Amino acid sequence: MKIRRYLAPDLRQALRQVREAQGPDAVILSTRRLDGEVEVVAAIDYEAVADAEAPVAEMVASAPQDDFATIARRTLAEARSGEVVSEASGGGASNADMGEELRTMRRLLETQLAALAWSDLTRRAPLRTTLLKELAELGIAADLATTIAAAVPETGELAAARRQVFAGIAGRLAIAEDRWLTQGGVVVLAGSSGAGKTSTLAKLAARWVMRHGSRELALVSCDGARFGAHEQLRTLGQLLDVPVHALTSTAELENVLPALVSRRLVLVDTAGSAPRDMQLPRELATLAAKTPRLETALVLAATTQAAALEDTVRRFAPVTPQSCVLTRLDEATSLGGTLSVLMRARLPLAWVSEGQRVPEDLRPARALELVARAVQLARECGAAADEDLLVRRFGGGVRASV
Ligand SMILES: Nc1nc2c(ncn2[C@@H]2O[C@H](COP(=O)(O)OP(=O)(O)O)[C@@H](O)[C@H]2O)c(=O)[nH]1
Ligand SMILES: [Mg+2]
Which of 327, 331, 333, 361 for mutating ligand 1's site (highest number of atoms within 8 Å of CB)? Predict the structure, then answer.
């Protein structure tokens, strides 16, 4: 075994020296900072090159404790820039091994740094870490939680800080005042299948008739895909004494809408839009460009995973939906993910639906009520964020601000 020590201004240059002097099979035994330089100790075992695969944990453990954070930061910065990895993986199989070792080391260091940063923050800002933990328990996305908690001064009482956090969430939720039932419009309800589009339409239609009578309302079904969808709307139309237009697709809307200009409110039901399917968003975008009165409202179920809700919001972005309706609130076991999607999208929430009864189970959206509901659900479901989760969620974000 031949062991050598290298000194260089940074880790990248030190590693280059190692490779030039001892070849690609050299194993890094330790790294540390010395008087503004990086010292790397490397070894090559000519008899058993296989032994050179020293566990990364040993390499890290051999680094002096006081220099750990500094070395780690630098290593991370360099590894992130891709220089070390790409250099290491530029040669043969052993270089690839070295690249893999560095990547493993980077992951290890990232975890270590996140844990260090989180425990440091817990010591320096206990109130903020308590708030971050509670936000994680609500299910609020890490980036939003970090921003919301950072706006609360560390000096106050926990109860007051909590109120500020709730107000922070509520303030980021855009709420749309009801215009449909007061002024009318051409409202297209869109979203994934089963989200509650037809039920919401029925609830809105029934409320309109109760308030204004049936004369100025028209219903349009563009759901030619789902078996019985047209009949469902026709039955509703008969009950409310309102005309129903059954179309096979939204593309036909353009021909039907001119005949409905005298109707103050036109409610349009659409077929469920599948993940990644852009057909309906495209058709609606084209139609919206030609029909100023037309607005799209996304119907989002609170029981849907945040990623799927985000997909719906992203796909319908070309249509620029004016608002959304949140359904199935009564079935949700956590609301943080859904609220995070709404906060990010800044999509004004007009109504919330919390049951199947027509027309009772529909209420105008209220931001603080939703936050209170999210808190209540987290309490009822015993949501708990353990230390590992908090480190993973916030260690990285906190590190950037340390
Ligand atoms: N529990 C509950 N069920 C709902 C809610 N909204 C709709 N549903 C039910 O969900 C199912 C699908 O609703 P539907 O309106 O047909 O969805 P669509 O495919 O988007 O038109 C129906 O059985 C509805 O009664 C709600 O807020 N809460
Ligand atoms: Mg439907």
Answer: 327
